[in-house]
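BUG-206 | component: ligand-complex export | severity: low

The export step for flavin mononucleotide jobs runs without errors, but we want the raw record kept on the ticket for reference. Input record follows.
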Amino acid sequence: MKRNAKTADWQSVLQGKTVGVGLTGSFCTMRQVLGQLRQLREIPGLSLQPILSDNVQRLDSKFGKAEEWQADLRDMGAEAPMLTIPAAEPIGPAGMLDVMMIAPCTGNTLAKLALGITDGPVLMAAKAHLRNEKPLLIALATNDALGANAKNLGLLMNTRHVYFVPLGQDDPIKKPRSLIFDAGLLPDALAAACEGRQLQPILRQY
Ligand SMILES: Cc1cc2nc3c(=O)[nH]c(=O)nc-3n(C[C@H](O)[C@H](O)[C@H](O)COP(=O)(O)O)c2cc1C
């Protein structure tokens, strides 16, 4: 299929931008996201403002330790992470971010965002950022995207200023309700969101 809407030059669109990155507990996709963030950090003048969910701050898993994610972010030269609701709140009044992404975004965070629940730093940041009518990009990775979370996905796909990294079924046989974002399209999707566009095609075939 033809990729008709790739952003011609995402580097130049993203130059000089302040990008908020809300990281939530999809631990299996964390390294892929960190790899993409490292690439983004090389764009001149781009600054990365991480915001970490409570679970990303405290849970170790077979995919890595909580402290490793923070060390990696420090190592790539990201700003000091926002770790609490009060730390993230000024994103709204100070208009701190040009664009924000939630990457990776869990089913848990997707559901709360769709329902207007703001009980953690990433959700606080997203709420504060959206209040300024600025773009929010979601890199969704969840086993229930076509199940319990399908309604929330549909709701957010139809919400102003919310965009998605193209996503697809990663294992239709063993995990028929699972969808995962295409990490390689994250920079393109971010540049498109900055321009108020959804990168197409939004459905990805793995
Ligand atoms: C090893 C491991 C991997 C996980 N991967 C995912 C995932 O890919 N997607 C998802 O929605 N939840 C995943 N979870 C569950 C979330 O971490 C859990 O729902 C948590 O409450 C999310 O909190 P947060 O959205 O505030 O970060 C995983 C949990 C563990 C322990």
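Assignee comment: Attached the raw record above. The pocket of flavin mononucleotide is lined by residues 24-29, 53, 55-56, 61, 63, 106-109, 120, 141-142 (CB under 6 Å).
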